[in-house]
Design brief:
The protein contains 3 helices and 9 strands. The protein has an 8-stranded antiparallel barrel with strand order 1-5-4-3-2-6-7-9. By secondary structure, it is mainly β. 14% of the residues lie in helices and 43% in strands. The termini are close together.
Length: 209
């Protein structure tokens, strides 16, 4: 089965029908503070926003082809905030010269009954995880540094286990279709984070289960 690359963008607002430009990498736990120090110097906010989110990935299997995937996410640090429902399209494979992965992104706020609604619609939860970390901003660019943890007992976000000894680093921009110049800005910014982290364009053909 081929699925879109995983992203762990936090619940920070809703954006409808935009294109997401994305670069991803990782940094070992022991290098985290060095990366955060570098980001404080490069980004608009010297002190990053922090987040702890619970994400559930739902699948709707059709008669043929890949299943339809939706992501439901809620903030654990702000329990009264709305849930967010996110759809990520298949990455565009057109222009090979693009420096970033490009895919359609639909992100809408939802009520706390979102999981029940998705179940009623025929979706089934495939997996869930907790993501916590830091958010930096540089103009339209967002940098998310997050630690992913698996949930050991379904629905119990207090009982988790870290997935790895590293942090996921994502550089992204949400923009209308055709704004490919943003990928050049992202490439320039990513260069300034080397050698602490190497942010790369993901090859969709390698995202297979």
């Amino acid at each position: 089965m081929e699925a879109p690359p995983v992203t762990v963008m936090p619940v920070t607002g809703g954006t409808i029908n935009m294109m997401e430009y994305l670069l991803q990498g990782s940094v070992l736990d022991q290098a985290l503070e060095s990366l955060l120090h570098r980001l404080r110097g490069l980004c608009d906010n010297m002190e990053p926003e922090t987040f702890t989110d619970h994400e559930l990935v739902y699948l709707l299997k059709g008669q043929q082809g890949n299943p339809f995937i939706l992501r439901a996410r809620r903030s654990l640090s702000h329990p009264t905030s709305p849930w967010h429902l996110r759809y990520l399209g298949q990455p565009e494979v057109g222009d090979k010269s693009r420096h970033a992965l490009v895919r359609n992104c639909v992100d809408v706020a939802a009520s706390h009954s979102l999981p029940e609604f998705l179940n009623e619609m025929g979706f089934r939860m495939d997996h869930e995880f907790v993501a916590n970390g830091h958010i930096f901003r540089k103009g339209a660019m967002k940098v998310v540094v997050s630690k992913l943890s698996r949930i050991l007992v379904p629905g119990n976000t207090e009982n988790t286990e870290r997935l790895s000894l590293s942090y996921l680093v994502e550089l992204s921009v949400l923009a209308p279709a055709g704004q490919d110049t943003v990928s050049e800005d992202m490439r320039s910014f990513a260069e300034q984070l080397k050698p602490l982290v190497h942010l790369e364009k993901i090859d969709p053909s390698k995202q297979r289960h």
